[in-house]
Design brief:
Helix content: 10-25%
Distance between the termini: 40 Å
Radius of gyration: 27 Å
Number of helices: 12
Largest sheet: 10 strands, antiparallel
Strand content: 25-35%
Number of strands: 38
Bound molecules: (2R,3S,4R,5S)-2-(hydroxymethyl)piperidine-3,4,5-triol
């Protein structure tokens, strides 16, 4: 049983294959966290007696006149409230109508279910069990949800708060979950970055401080990912503690990670409360997004494998999670916005000479969009000036060559220079003081306004209904600024960012369900909204606008800490790269893009004969390895953040075959490097490209490779003999 309640000890145990998470109900009715670690086999062990003891430290005594008695400040808590003497970052704070902000909730009941209730209006993981605990005071009821994923060594957490008194209650902060531990020498690892350099691995020692990883952008963003890794200073890929926390949310989020002088460690995570207030009338309730926690005592790589399995099995649309992905040609880096019907047809014609599945027409096909970004967003009808006869001639050309057709949209945006804005300026999000911020000449659609929401839904549906479209790229090229909707009351404005996110999910839900045969790819100026909630709708997300193969080694290495390789889109793109202006060999670009759901994004009519040959071979090889990318186990072998070498390997679950890519950076002089394989079975393997057979231990010892060129890569397929 994954969830056990010991009624004598009033203790809950959440068990996975390798871990136990335990907490109890205290005599006063609080939930006290006891243990999170390697699986306990002996449940008679008195976990409470192992709880840390503290010396007197000016911690307030809860409901007692006796000094040195029970204090919430010196306890590991499951879900801490503001104003009860727990001085650390807390999980929730509400204000009652008399202005008081003390939430004295106590345990009332619990249930264990053999099913998992989904969150009503937000993405969450599918599952088959849940522990539901109800806490109450006279004003509010708080329900905590836990689910267990045994094989993936993961649990998920979330909360619902309900107003049970007659007056309005204002939520000031409500986190999805909390993790309290005891100890020191912890390090927080975040996936931080910027546009073109997303999800870089950054380490922050956690010592007597609070580390906050957050977004205030109304999107999960390029700067931070809704993820933290709690590790020890000596944790590495293959040994040591690695607890990963990932919030299933795409809007402004927060992780507050705290370590105190008496070695209490706390992480709380949820919707960012920096600008948040949500009013609840009697009987109304508020649901938080879901927080995923997975534990490994064998290093970061195992934690990543657990995330990958968890998301492929329980989060990504099951229709597509393991399904072969289309190999694309996207016109963006070849033509940008300045395409003509003729050069699109030329690209499609050239694509037909290769095994390309889908041609994707990117930005620029709609409204009066011409050469810049200042016109047309929101006008979801074809720009006949650019594409005479509409999309039909392009789609017909694709069909002639048995190529499918995909189309770019940016549903959440609007240009002031558009027909729809001239007709309905109120559809754009802006403050009563007018437009303050533009970004890329665009404004954000106020999706909280039902009319704007319906307009977007209907105008895009019309295009999808009237054209044979099998792929949609959903872009999002700016973040939110003036958090204000004309559709909300003044006292509701501080709830805007979350309401915007809920409406975005509702829109995505509508499209994904209404068009189940369309494959949706997420995008946000590159990888600016790469999070588990987006993955729920979009099985694939454009990883970064930086397609330079060397930069991608870092971006993809960082992204793989949480997300499965099949969820990244990576293309063989233009060289010198648009972002870094770096020149890398064509083979390197093919190898790095093969570690993703792959495609091409360059003017393929202009390739040299060697590049054409390389492209053809690469597609053929990709077809051979794509099942590994979708189903395999990832082993990160060389970390480019720590040495001037990158390598990642993906091994089939039955260990019968594997694919590995290894690459160097800029060389001072030619050099040799060992490629040391991992994750193989006890077999001999043929390395196809070298025509040699090696034993597992020979492969683990490594093969020596000679690098003579800057940014050179090798890639190998291994087959069990
Ligand atoms: C940003 C995306 O990341 C690019 O791939 C491209 O679609 C452009 N937007 C189009 O404006």
């Amino acid at each position: 049983m994954s969830v056990i309640f010991d009624s004598k000890k009033k203790t809950f145990y959440l068990n996975t294959n390798d871990t136990t998470y335990a907490f109890l109900i205290t005599p006063t009715g609080f939930l006290k966290h006891l243990y999170y670690g390697d699986k306990l086999n002996d449940f008679d062990i008195d976990l409470e007696s192992l709880s840390p003891k503290f010396k007197w430290n000016l911690s307030p005594e809860y409901n007692s006149k006796k000094e040195d008695s029970f204090s919430l400040n010196q306890m590991l808590n499951e879900y801490s409230a503001f104003g009860l003497g727990d001085y650390r970052e807390v999980s929730f704070k509400v204000t009652y109508n008399d202005g008081s902000r003390n939430n004295d909730l106590k345990y009332v009941s619990h249930e264990i279910h053999q099913y998992k209730s989904p969150i009503k209006n937000m993405p969450s993981l599918r599952g088959d069990n849940e522990l539901v605990i109800v806490l109450k005071d006279e004003y509010i009821e708080l329900t905590l949800f836990y689910s267990v994923y045994e094989k993936e060594n993961a649990i998920t957490r979330r909360a619902i708060i309900k107003n049970i008194n007659n007056n309005i209650v204002t939520i000031n902060s409500i986190m999805s979950g909390q993790l309290d531990l005891f100890g020191n020498d912890y390090t927080i690892v975040s996936l931080s970055g910027e546009w073109g350099k997303e999800r870089q691995i950054i380490k922050h020692p956690l010592n007597n401080c609070i580390i906050k990883i957050d977004s205030k952008r109304g999107a999960s963003g390029h700067s931070q990912n809704p993820f933290v890794l709690l590790s020890k200073s000596d944790t590495n890929e293959y040994s040591g503690l690695a607890i990963g926390l990932n919030l299933v949310y795409s809007g402004s989020f927060v992780f507050k990670c705290e370590h105190t002088f008496d070695n209490l460690v706390r992480i709380v995570s949820g919707i960012n409360d920096f600008d948040f207030a949500w009013e609840l009338k009697r009987e109304e309730q508020f649901e938080t997004p879901e927080l995923v926690i997975t534990y490994s005592n064998c290093g970061v790589n195992k934690m990543s494998q657990q995330f990958h399995d968890l998301y492929r099995n329980y989060l990504i649309n099951p229709k597509y999670a393991f399904k072969e992905r289309p190999i694309l040609l996207n016109n963006w880096e070849a033509t940008s916005i300045n395409f003509t019907k003729e050069n699109l047809i030329k690209l499609i014609n050239e694509a037909s000479k290769y095994d390309i599945d889908t041609f994707v027409l990117d930005d620029g096909w709609f409204g009066k969009r011409e050469e810049g970004f200042d016109k047309g967003l929101g006008d979801w009808f074809v720009n006949e000036n650019k594409l005479e006869g509409g999309l039909k001639p392009i789609i017909d050309e694709c069909k002639k060559h048995n190529i499918k057709f995909g189309l770019w949209f940016e549903p959440e945006m609007i240009n002031e220079d558009s027909d729809i804005y001239r007709l309905h300026p109120e559809y754009a999000m802006k403050s009563p003081k007018g437009i303050i911020n533009r970004n890329r000449y665009q404004l954000v659609m106020d999706l909280v306004n039902e009319d704007a929401f319906n307009y977007v839904k209907e105008s895009i549906s019309k295009i999808l209904d009237n054209n044979d479209i099998s792929y949609v790229k959903w872009d999002f090229n700016r973040n939110l600024t003036e958090y204000y909707s004309q559709a909300l009351l003044p006292q509701e404005q501080a709830s805007f960012a979350h309401r915007y996110m809920l409406q975005t999910y509702r829109l995505m839900d509508y499209f994904v369900n209404r068009y189940p045969n369309i494959f949706f790819e997420g995008c946000a100026s590159g990888g600016g909204r790469f999070d588990p909630a987006m993955l729920y709708y979009f099985p694939q997300i454009w990883c970064s606008d930086n397609s330079d193969a060397y930069s991608r080694e870092f971006i993809q290495y960082g992204t793989s800490i949480v997300y499965p390789l099949s969820s990244f889109t990576g293309h063989v793109s233009v060289c010198p790269s648009h972002v870094d202006k770096r020149i890398t060999p064509f083979k390197t670009r093919c190898d790095i893009a093969s570690l993703c759901s792959t495609g091409f994004e360059l003017d393929i009519t202009n390739l040299s004969s060697e590049e054409k040959e390389e492209m053809r071979n690469n597609i053929k090889r990709y077809k051979e390895i794509s099942s590994l990318i979708r189903n395999g186990d990832l082993y990160r072998l060389n970390n480019p953040f720590e040495e001037d070498l990158f390598s990642m390997m993906i091994v089939s679950k039955d260990k019968s075959n594997a694919f590995v890519v290894i690459g160097v950076g800029k060389l001072q002089k030619s050099t040799s490097k060992y490629l040391k394989f991992k994750g193989l079975g006890d077999y001999n393997y043929l390395i196809k490209e070298l025509g040699v057979i090696k034993t597992k231990s020979q492969l683990e010892e490594g093969i020596l490779l000679e690098f003579t060129q800057d940014y050179q890569t090798y890639s190998f397929i291994l087959n069990k003999q």
